[in-house]
Design brief:
Among the domains are: 4-61, 2-Layer Sandwich (Uridine Diphospho-n-acetylenolpyruvylglucosamine Reductase, domain 2), CATH 3.30.43.10; 69-182, 2-Layer Sandwich (Uridine Diphospho-n-acetylenolpyruvylglucosamine Reductase, domain 3). The strands form five sheets. An eight-stranded antiparallel sheet has the order 16-13-15-14-18-19-17-20. The chain has a five-stranded antiparallel sheet with strand order 6-7-11-9-10. It starts with a strand and ends with a helix. It is built from 14 helices and 20 strands. 32% of the residues lie in helices and 24% in strands. It is α+β, with helices and mostly antiparallel strands.
Length: 432
C-alpha cells in the first residue's frame, strides 16, 4: 500500500507494510512479524478520526476482515464481536437479537475498536460514552500475546486503561458490549433562540434522554435536537425527506455553498445567517440506531472538547464571540452535547459530567488559528480533547487534566514496553 489517508483526506501516511488479517491468530502473527522487523504498528479503523492517531511509517493493520459475531446472550445483553466490526453492522446484529446500544454518536461508520479507543460518545445527561458500555475486551500486545480485561477482573486499572487506549496499548481483537433491550426513539428538531437554549441548558438536558444543539457562528438561533424513548408506532423519515435534506441540500447545495465561501470568505457571515433561517423542524419515530445515526458526506476537519458541564454555555458564548470579533471565515456550526461521567482513565468525561463542544472547518480551508483559539478557551476550563479529533496539547498539558494519567502510563509500560504501538501522536500525547 503506497498511501493511507483518513476520511477527510488531510491525515496521510505511507506505511512500510499493510496487513489485513482475518483471524486473531493472523493478527498476532502480523504483529509478531512487525516487532521482529523493528517496525511499529498502528490499526487504522474506518479512518473517521481527524487526529494523527492512526498514522505510521511501519506496519498498518486493517481489521475489516475481523467482523464476526462471536457470541451473544440476549437475556444478559452481553454480545461479543470482533474488533473490526463497524457500529452500523453491530447495530444490525443487535437489532436481530432484540438488543441495542444504550447510547451512540451520530456517525455509525466507525469500527467498534476505533470508537472505543478514541472515547466516541453520543449525548445524554444520564448516559455515558461508548467505552463505558463495554463488559470486556481482548488486546493483542506487541509480542503477539492476547490479554483479556473485563469488568469482573481484579485488574480494574488495566480495564479502565484499555477502554480508552488511544491505540497505544495493543490491537483490540474482540470486545463484549453490554447491550440493552431494543428501543424506539422519538426525535424532535426545533429551532430556538440561542439565549434561551444556553440559559435553560440544564433543564433541557435533564428533561430529555438525549439532547444536543447546533449553532452557526454570526447567528443567534440554535437547532435543538431532542431524542426520547417512546412506545409510539414507528414514523420514520420519508425517503423524500432524506433525498431532499441530506442528498440534495447537504451533498449538492451544501457542498457548493461551502466551496463558494472558501473562495469568497466575506460571504460567510451572510451565509450563516441564511442557513440559520432555514433550520428546519422535524418530528419522527424510529428504531434507536436509525434515530442516532446520520449520513455526513461533506468533508471537514474537527476539534472537540469536554469541559465541566457547568462551564459549557459560557464556553460556547466565548467561541462565538471570538469568531465574530475576528471575523473568522468559518461557516460550520458548533455542535454541543452532554455526557455523564465514567471511570476510564483517559476518557474526556473521566469522573465528571461533560459538556462537549465540537467545532469544524470545511476541508481545505484554514483551520489552525480557529482551533488554536478554541483550544485556548477550553483550556481555561480544564478542557479535555476528544481523542479522535484535532488538538495540539502535549504530554505535560494532558497529564495535568487527567487524574489517572500516570496509572495509564503504568499500564502502557506493562503491555507495550517496547512501544510497538507508538507513533508521533502517542509520543506527543503520552511521551516516549
Amino acid at each position: 500500500m503506497k498511501e493511507w489517508h483518513n476520511w477527510t483526506g488531510d491525515q496521510v501516511c505511507q506505511p512500510a507494510a499493510y496487513e489485513r488479517p482475518h483471524t486473531r491468530r493472523e493478527l498476532s502473527e502480523a504483529i509478531e512479524r512487525a516487532a521482529a522487523a523493528g517496525q511499529r504498528v498502528k490499526v487504522h479503523g474506518a479512518g473517521h478520526s481527524f487526529s494523527e492517531a492512526a498514522l505510521t511509517d511501519g506496519m498498518m493493520i486493517d481489521l475489516s476482515g475481523c467482523t464476526r459475531l462471536l457470541g451473544a446472550d440476549a437475556a444478559s445483553g452481553l454480545v461479543r464481536v470482533e474488533g473490526g466490526i463497524t457500529i452500523r453492522a453491530l447495530n444490525q446484529e443487535l437489532h436481530r437479537l432484540g438488543l441495542a446500544m444504550a447510547n451512540l454518536g451520530d456517525i455509525d461508520a466507525q469500527t467498534i475498536s476505533g470508537a472505543i479507543s478514541t472515547a466516541t460518545h453520543g449525548t445524554g445527561s444520564r448516559l455515558q460514552n461508548i467505552p463505558a458500555q463495554l463488559a470486556a475486551l481482548d488486546l493483542v500486545t506487541g509480542t503477539g500475546e492476547t490479554v483479556s480485561f473485563s469488568a469482573d477482573d481484579s485488574d480494574q486499572t488495566g480495564f479502565r486503561a484499555a477502554r480508552v487506549g488511544l491505540g497505544a496499548l495493543g490491537a483490540i481483537s474482540a470486545v463484549t458490549v453490554r447491550a440493552v433491550p431494543a428501543f424506539t426513539l422519538h426525535r424532535v428538531d426545533e429551532p430556538l433562540p440561542l439565549d434561551q437554549v444556553l440559559g435553560d441548558f440544564d433543564a433541557l438536558a435533564d428533561a430529555n434522554d438525549h439532547f444536543e444543539f447546533f449553532v452557526f457562528p454570526y447567528t443567534d438561533q440554535a437547532l435543538t435536537i431532542r431524542r426520547n424513548r417512546t412506545a409510539a408506532p414507528l414514523r420514520p423519515r420519508s425517503r423524500l425527506n432524506v433525498l431532499i435534506n441530506e442528498r440534495l441540500m447537504q451533498d449538492k447545495v451544501g457542498d457548493l455553498l461551502f466551496r463558494l465561501t472558501a473562495r469568497y470568505r466575506r460571504l460567510i457571515p451572510r451565509l450563516a445567517k441564511i442557513s440559520a433561517r432555514f433550520l428546519s423542524e422535524g418530528d419522527y419515530v424510529d428504531h434507536s440506531f436509525e434515530i442516532f445515526s446520520s449520513q455526513r458526506t461533506l468533508r471537514f476537519t474537527e476539534m472537540e472538547w469536554a469541559v465541566p458541564r457547568a462551564n459549557g454555555p459560557e464556553a460556547v458564548r466565548r467561541v462565538l464571540d471570538w469568531v465574530a470579533s475576528e471575523r473568522y471565515p468559518v461557516a460550520f456550526p458548533l455542535e454541543c452535547r452532554v455526557v455523564a461521567a465514567d471511570d476510564a482513565l483517559l476518557s474526556p468525561s473521566f469522573e465528571r459530567d461533560a459538556f462537549y463542544i465540537a467545532v469544524h472547518q470545511y476541508r481545505g480551508m484554514e483551520w489552525r488559528p480557529y482551533f488554536e483559539a478554541v483550544q485556548s478557551i477550553m483550556s481555561e476550563y480544564g478542557g479535555r480533547p476528544h481523542w479522535g479529533k484535532r488538538h495540539m496539547l502535549t504530554r505535560d498539558e494532558l497529564a495535568s487534566r487527567y487524574p489517572g494519567f500516570d496509572d495509564f502510563l503504568a499500564v502502557r509500560d506493562r503491555l507495550d514496553p517496547g512501544r510497538v504501538f507508538a507513533n508521533a501522536y502517542t509520543e506527543r500525547c503520552l511521551g516516549a
